[in-house]
Specification:
365 residues; alpha/beta; Rossmann fold; 3-stranded antiparallel β-sheet; 10 helices; 13 strands
C-alpha cells in the first residue's frame, strides 16, 4: 500500500548531535566574550557543570578537540592561546541571519526590486513592441511568430521588426549601503545590553547582503568619539568604549565611502540609542552630554542636508524612547527626507530587513 505512515515524534534523548548543541552555545558565548575563545570555553564548562550539557561519552575535552579538528579554532604559534578562525566568524554571522531574518536561499545578481523595467533577470507579464537596443533574449518568439502569420499570411511567411514583441523584465537595482553602529558608552548603560543585539543585527545584515545580494556593496563603520571602518570579520567581537557619540563623524565617513562607489543607489543605515554629544575640533573634542547641545545638533543636521543633496538617504534605527530624542530624530529625518524607526531591541532586525527589501529607489541622474 502506497502512502505515508505517521507516528508520535519522540525526541532524541541526547538532544541530537552533541557537538552541534555545544557549538551553538559556543558561538553565542563568543559574542559576549568579544572573541575570547578561552573565556568562552570556561563559561561553557561552567554551564556544563551546572546543567549537564554533556554526557559521559562526549565531554568538553571531546568538544574542544572537535573544534580544532573541524577548523573552528586554531592555536596561536606565539603564545599558545586558542583563536577563532574565519569559519567561526562566518558561522556566527549565519546563526545571526537565521535567528533574525530566517533562512534565506542564495541568489545571484542585484535583487532589489524596483518600479522600473529593463534588462533585468526576471520576466513579468508585460508585453510591448520591439525597439532598437532591446536584448534578443527578451523577444517573445511565440507572440512574434503569431504576429508574422497574421500580418503576412502562412504562404508568404515573413518575420519583420514590426512583428517582434518583447516580454518585459523587472530591473533589479544594485545598492551601496553603509551600516553605522553606535559604540558609545550609552549602549551598555542602565543595565541594558544594547550592543549585543545591535551587532547581531549587523552580522545578519552583512550575511544577507553577501549571500542574497552579492553584487551590492556593504561598508560597516562604528562611531564613538571618532568614526572608523571595520571589516565583517570584526563584527562579532565589537566592544563598547568609554566614548561619547560623534554622529557627525560617522556620517562624514559614511558619505566619503559612498562617494567612491559607482552604484547610483546609495544609502546609510544608522543604529544608535542616543543623541549626538561630541564633535572633533582640531586634535581635541567638543563634548556635552547634557541635553541637546545646539552646536553639535546643528552640525549633525547640516550633514543630513548634505547627504540629501548627494542623493543619499539615511535610515535611522533609534533604540531609545525618550521624547526629546525622538524629536531630534524626526527633525534629522525630515531634513534628509529619509526614514526613521523607533524600535525595541527585539524588533530591530525585522525593521531593517523590511526596509531594505522594499527599497525601490529611483536611479539618480
Amino acid at each position: 500500500m502506497l502512502g505515508h505512515f505517521f507516528s508520535k515524534y519522540i525526541p532524541d534523548p541526547d538532544g541530537g548531535n552533541p557537538f552541534q548543541k555545544l557549538l551553538d552555545l559556543f558561538l553565542q558565548l563568543m559574542q559576549y566574550t568579544n572573541g575570547d575563545v578561552a573565556e568562552s570555553l570556561d563559561w561553557l564548562t561552567q554551564l556544563d557543570n551546572q546543567h549537564g550539557l554533556t554526557q559521559n561519552e562526549y565531554g568538553m575535552g571531546n568538544f574542544i578537540q572537535d573544534l580544532k579538528d573541524k577548523g573552528f579554532i586554531k592555536t596561536d604559534i606565539l603564545n599558545g592561546d586558542f583563536t577563532p578562525t574565519a569559519k567561526t566568524n562566518q558561522s556566527i554571522r549565519k546563526k545571526s541571519l537565521e535567528e533574525i531574518f530566517g533562512k534565506l536561499k542564495k541568489s545571484q545578481g542585484g535583487n532589489h526590486r524596483t518600479a522600473f523595467t529593463g534588462q533585468g533577470d526576471e520576466a513579468n507579464s508585460d508585453i510591448r513592441k520591439f525597439t532598437f537596443g532591446d536584448s534578443i533574449d527578451q523577444i517573445d518568439m511565440t507572440a512574434s511568430l503569431h504576429n508574422a502569420q497574421v500580418n503576412h499570411g502562412i504562404e508568404n511567411f515573413n518575420l519583420t521588426e514590426n512583428d517582434l514583441e518583447i516580454k518585459e523584465r523587472d530591473y533589479k537595482a544594485q545598492t551601496s549601503t553603509v551600516l553605522m553602529i553606535d559604540i558609545s558608552h550609552s549602549m551598555i548603560l542602565y543595565g541594558e545590553d544594547r550592543i549585543t543585539p545591535a551587532k547581531k543585527v549587523a552580522m545578519a545584515f552583512a550575511e544577507l547582503i553577501k549571500t542574497k545580494y552579492p553584487k551590492d556593496t556593504l561598508d560597516i563603520i562604528v562611531f564613538g568619539n571618532d568614526a572608523w571602518p571595520i571589516e565583517i570579520k570584526d563584527l562579532p567581537y565589537l566592544q563598547v568604549g568609554p566614548y561619547h557619540t560623534n554622529t557627525y563623524a560617522g556620517l562624514e565617513l559614511a558619505m566619503d565611502l559612498l562617494r567612491k562607489r559607482k552604484n547610483a543607489n546609495k544609502q546609510i543605515f544608522m543604529i544608535t540609542d542616543g543623541k549626538p554629544t561630541c564633535l572633533k575640533e582640531g586634535t581635541g573634542y567638543y563634548q556635552n552630554s547634557f541635553g541637546l547641545d545646539k552646536k553639535i545638533i546643528n552640525k549633525t543636521l547640516s550633514m543630513a542636508a548634505q547627504a540629501r543633496r548627494a542623493g543619499i538617504t539615511i535610515t535611522t534605527f533609534m533604540i531609545a524612547t525618550d521624547p526629546y530624542l525622538q524629536k531630534f530624530v524626526r527633525e534629522f529625518t525630515e531634513i534628509n527626507k529619509g526614514r526613521a524607526y523607533y524600535s525595541t531591541l527585539n524588533g530591530l532586525g525585522n525593521y531593517i530587513f523590511e526596509d531594505f527589501e522594499r527599497n525601490k529607489r529611483r536611479t539618480m541622474k
